[in-house]
Design brief:
mainly alpha; 10% strand
């Protein structure tokens, strides 16, 4: 199944499940492998770091209260913040490469 004529860039770490030769990437998916043992290069890790700051030393009466607080933090994120967290040169280079593919 292809998403129109677009390509998808999928950033993955070096976990064995992601690097197995048994994986057959669809032709429209371009995997970008981050360096081994470098979670700081994974945009989701940086997002979690940003989200955890306002949660530090807070106690929640329930899991639902925690979920609501996380949602509030998400709702306050600006587009510019998300871009600044997730934009890395190697990701951008992969996007440019995919666009010229």
């Amino acid at each position: 199944m292809q998403l129109g004529s677009d390509y998808a860039i999928l950033q993955v770490d070096q976990a064995p499940a992601h690097t197995s030769s048994a994986i057959r990437w669809q032709e429209f998916i371009i995997p970008v492998f981050q360096p081994a043992s470098a979670p700081e290069l994974n945009p989701i890790e940086r997002l979690w770091q940003l989200l955890k700051k306002p949660l530090k030393n807070q106690l929640f009466s329930s899991l639902q209260a925690l979920r609501e607080r996380i949602q509030e933090i998400f709702d306050q994120l600006t587009f510019e913040q998300v871009i600044s967290i997730s934009s890395y040169n190697f990701i951008l280079e992969a996007l440019f490469y995919a666009a010229s593919y």
